[in-house]
Structures are given as C-alpha cells and as structure tokens.
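FW: tagging you since you asked about this chain on Friday. Here's the raw sequence from the shared folder, copied in full. Didn't touch anything.
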Amino acid sequence: MAQIHTHYDNLKVARNAPPEITRAAYRAFSQKFHPDRNPDNSDAARIMAITNASYEVLSDPDKRREHDQWIKEVEAASHAKVKASQAVHSTTQVQPQPSVAPPVLHRLVLPLFNLVKGLVIWAFSYMIGIGILIGVLWIIGSAFDLFGGKSSPPPGPKPYQVDPASERSAYARPSTAPNGNPRPVSSGYVKDYQRLHADGLSTVTVDNG
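HL: got it, structure written out here
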C-alpha cells in the first residue's frame, strides 16, 4: 500500500496527538526554521510555510476532521487497489515448462549403473549369508563336542618300547681266571696271578668279557 504524506507527517506528530502536542511541535519548528533566525538558509522559508499550513489545519477541529476523513478515503482506495492486484496475480496460471528428455548417454549409463549396483549388493548379501551359515555350523559342532559328542584325544608322545635286539644276554661269571687257574669263590687272589703291589695297595682288574 502506498504511503501518503499528511499534515501529521509535516509536524512529525502522531495522528491521535492531542492539541498541546501539536502546538509544541509547531513551536519547535518555528524556532528552528523561522526565516528571521535563518537568513542564509534558502529552505527555511519553504519549510516554515509548510509548517504554518499544517498547523492551521490540525489546530482547527473541523479542518482536522476533514483531513482525517481524506486520509481514510485515500488509504481505503489504495488498499482496495492492492487487493485487486493480488486477486489478478493469484488467478494467473503458470504455464508448465516442457519436459526435457535426458541425454542419450544418460539413458544408457543409468540402467547399466543400476545393474552393477544390484549385482554388488547381491554378492555382498550372499557372502554375508555364507559367513553366517559357517558360523552357525561351527557353533553347533562345538556344542556337540561339549555336551556328549565324541572327539578324538589330542596326539601325545608314543610309549617307550624296548628293542628286543638290544637286550643283552645274562652275565655268566667265568669259572677260571685268564691264567687258567680257578677263580676264588670268596674275596681273594687268584693263585699264581701276578700281584702288582704288595705293600698294602692293590689293583682290581674287572673282566667284562
């Protein structure tokens, strides 16, 4: 809606301002823009003339009432014009844009891409299913071995076996000494056998033959 300029705007007061406010605003403008106070300001006379005209209307109750009525009529007409413009704009139909066919390359590549994507998803799902099946079978097998299933014992060391060929025959004490004399039955010297030491020390010959 277009903004209209009124006498209230000239004095910079509200439309419902009481007379004393209007009078105070007029005095402030007069002191600021009176030609006698502004001999070098060419706009002072023009501004003061507008201020006098606005105060003349707003200080008179009848003229102020007529000015308020004029404001309402102008604003109502402007509002109706805006409403009519909005109604015309809302009834205007927007023409649909013609559809543009995708390029030939796009029409060929898109189905191929969708096919490859579908194969990848299927292969991934298949591998996941195989992994789950193997895991379930392993769990079942472990549970069977744990709750009563038979399982082979872990391999251990072989028991020691004596080789019969390595067994020696029982020792048989010869009845004669190397010099042909009989061996003594108890502790003693073989008759006529050489004594290496006679001073209390002696040597012992062990015949393992």
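FW: The chain has a mean pLDDT of 79.
HL: agreed, and The first helix runs from residue 7 to 11.
FW: great, closing this out.
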